[in-house]
Design goal:
about 120 residues, about 60% helix, single chain
Amino acid sequence: MELLVASAIGILTAAGLYLVLRLRTFPVILGMSLLTYAVNVFLFASGRLTIGAPPILQDGVSAYTDPLPQALVLTAIVISFGMTAVVVVIALGAYLGSDDDHVDDQTEEPAAKPEDAA
């Protein structure tokens, strides 16, 4: 089971990095989303998950589930949803302002005037 979870985290991270390195805004946004999913799965898996155990230590219970990774993942999901919405709005504004969605647009050098050549 550990191999499956580790492979899923690796595949999500690799796909996210590939998409982040693209030169268009939409793949960059998808790549950032995949990276946040990979981090969430990693945090969730690092919590020593136990099936059927209570989330808090009670009298007479020897095994319990740590609730901290679950709380961290829930918080990360909310924050990543908000940040994704902000990035989508910024990317949409940049696209509508320049009619291009390239990430690394270079500013064009002004053409040399004929009187400067003399």
